[in-house]
Amino acid sequence: MNTVAVRARRTPLSEHTIMPPCQVACPLHMDIREYVDLAAQGRLMEAMQVIRSGNPFPSICAYICAHPCEEACRRGQVDKPVAIRALKRFALEFGGDRMIEVEAETTRSERVAVVGSGPAGLACAYYLRKLGYPVTVFEAHSEVGGMLRVGIPRYRLPREVLDVEITRLTKMGVEIRTGTRVVSLDLVFDLGYRAVFLTVGAHQSLRMGIEGEDGAGVVDGATLLRELNLGLTPALGERVAVVGGGNVAMDAARSAVRLGVPQVSVLYRRTRAEMPADPREVEQALEEGIEFQYLVAPVRVRTREGRPEVTCVRMELGEPDQSGRRRPVPIAGSEFTERYDTLVTAIGQAPQVPDDFHVRIGRGSTIQVDPVTLSTNRAGVFAGGDAVTGPSTVVEALAAGRTAAGRIDDYLNHRYPLAPSDSEEEWMGDLRPETVATIRTTGRLEPPVLSREERTAGFAPVELAYDCQTATNEARRCLRCGLGAAIVAPDRCASCLTCVRVCPYHVPYADAEGAIHIPFDQCQACGICVGECPAGVIALRKAGELGQVDEELDHVLGSATRVTSKPMIVGFCCQYGVYGTGTLAGLWRGLKAGVWIVPVRCVTKVETGHLLRAFEMGAEGVFVAGCGEQCARENTGHWMRQRVAKVKRVLAQLGLQPERLEAFMWGENTHDPTEVLDEFAARVGGFYLDSVLLQEVKR
Amino acid sequence: MIVAEQKPLEDIIRMVRPYKKVLLLGCGTCTTVCNAGGETEVAFLHDALRMAEARAGDGRREYSEATLKRQCDPEFLEHLTERVEGVDAVVSLACGTGVQALAERFADLPVFPGVNTSFIGMAVEWGVWDERCAACGDCRLEDTGGICPITRCTKGILNGPCAGPKKGHCEVSPDMECAWILIYRRLERLGQLERMRRYYPPRNFRPISRPRRIVGKAGLEARGSHGDVTA
Ligand SMILES: Cc1cc2nc3c(=O)[nH]c(=O)nc-3n(C[C@H](O)[C@H](O)[C@H](O)COP(=O)(O)OP(=O)(O)OC[C@H]3O[C@@H](n4cnc5c(N)ncnc54)[C@H](O)[C@@H]3O)c2cc1C
Ligand code: SF4
User: Which domains does chain A have, with CATH numbers?
Assistant: First the structure.
């Protein structure tokens, strides 16, 4: 054992972070925690870059991603999950995503064909281009995008967004042939393509299997949306019923409202609790005046005077089925009949794969593939997306496209495919109830939406972008799972119990042997114990976090010490929330030429040594500005004040006025940072003048 | 545990003034636990000294930092031999024992105490330590319900309480609880109040001749199977 330790606090933890649950849940494994943190600091361009690096078409996901990450978010165990998707949109829109151009060079001669221009196909094309392959996408429809174009309504995904991403793709050199239905794969190979990726989606609506469902005035949801999206204006009449409880049903019903149908009903055979549709969609549908009839299923349709007359039966919930949801059971004798102008069926879709493809088809008409390589029974033919999984989500399709590109690359290089690196060695458990009890609830902040009237008047995008303040506050709710504190040098831990005593969340504990443990899946990465540990053996798991303040301070002092005409004031400013956007820092800098800002990611990262160093380098005054009552973590201001008090004592011992050091806390002792700073600067200026005069007198 | 507190900065500055190369030496045991002399405090002292010099503009000393597991054991001090080469003085942030152990081991090196060794005590909460034991060498805690009147009674009386306590607190240090009232309550709970009826004769401190030494090993001849072994 090395018994001589030399400033070990300056040696960081080996780069060992734990994948947070959101990232595990995301099929693309995006670095969500990182971009949310950047957004919380108002560093939107960097956030945008992190987002772009993990997703080929992030601006699309920013609107319509089914966000499995939010379902996994552990903030949900405290109050509600972080609004990750909306934050992504905020970061992209304000981070300059529109300006981004993606480049690709052709370095390979093997041409690859992609059948279908849905998200899976486009993602595969994107990554194949990045790998240097010439790629052609064949699309049966006249327009590119698959369900993004012909399924998802415009009010949820503005077509400009889709177009920008597609233009980017074509600029990368992806060739897209629309209006080209592939009927035979042999033909594709004959054209010289060396590999094919099949992503034909799942566009065939399922049939209800009841009498009269092909009659006049009955249409399936996918067809209705396709017609609408390809520019037709279906005539639906005055009364429309939509059968189903999924997102397609919501889209069909809400589109009907936008087409001017005064009375739209959704018929669903279970209750609202079992509805697979996104709850927010359901909420918005209700706001738009759509009527929901639960525990109702059609049993027969008759056509009367060219309009459907629908007989339904009432249901009750019985035993749970394989999906875990309670099975609806018809109530005998509860039938009733209603007349509608149009009946829309939206109970699911299945893929429709031409027989001539000669690929093996499995359950639910899906293409059978090897789960690791995505290869089909035919050499050189790969498949993914809805065509393989059945109706799923855009982000799943994107992930499949990305995997396929990698596997096609392996195939064309005669390389053994590497198994996916999804080995989640250390899983984040749930938060313990005791930990949950100590975390402040902050309530989820949703982005604004158009009013009901504005929404139903047409197909304008429903959701608007966040404003900066709301977005940064929402982003600050992230619990930073997996970045928590760790004891880096257990052999030097004195078991002093400081961490046990200072942690606001009661995370660290001592075992019966006296060893200290910090359970990584409970820690909120607030950093208090890191600064307080008397042995200096605790570090956060975030790479680069340790030396961050030192670096920033050096940087600032480097410039500040060159200016000698004015008293120098160094301010350590929290980067989150109010200060996050950098506007205040800028304001202060402009106001007082002698004020130098050291940006810090939470004031708990400011240690006594940093304050002393600023004075050592000639600062006449030093202040720490924290976000105070806005802070998403507990006691950060308290511990910062402890440190400030300690340094004040040293100042006093050295005959320097302790008032040269001040802590400003938003909401605690200030609501107007500029005012308090003005006052502080004046005070420090006074000390400065005094000392200059004194020196003159001495001479 | 031994509790200490860092000396005022002026004192330390005065001690190191004549020297150029100074080693600031922390202790990884007691003074780490009481927040007076662990690695973090060594770093803090270092920063404070540098700052003091920069503000005073009186020439720069060269400081180095190190922290030992314990300074009060000679074997640990051996790890310092290289580090003290070229060093003019050491400021030790260990208790007085550590300072002396260093002075003994490095005969030519000036060694200064960076902390005031204060007492044997315990943490009441983060950042607050209370004295509990006077190391009197003649423990009577069995009679006083596990509460030491010598340490905790301001007057150190053995047959208390005196007439002064107010609402359970000491008349001399009103924020301290009266040790004898604590003793009474505790004996009452334990059903041992009869111990209060005894008279404890005044203590004779004389038999404690200083310095004390404890020999735990048997007084065998230092002889191993391979001949002489210096124990
Ligand atoms: C109305 C609706 C709303 C949805 N909303 C959401 C949502 O909000 N969030 C979400 O994550 N997911 C949503 N989804 C699901 C999502 O759109 C799909 O999971 C995703 O588009 C599947 O992508 P894909 O590439 O596998 O297939 P698709 O997007 O279906 O693309 C397949 C493409 O292949 C083409 N094609 C088929 N056969 C041939 C052929 N022989 N030759 C050439 N081209 C062919 C088709 O024309 C189509 O363009 C929604 C789906 C629908 C229908
Ligand atoms: S970093 Fe904060 S939350 Fe984590 S153990 Fe330390 S004090 Fe507790």
Answer: 21-100+430-475 (1.10.1060.10), 111-202+351-412 (3.50.50.60), 204-349 (3.50.50.60), 485-543 (3.30.70.20), 547-698 (3.40.50)
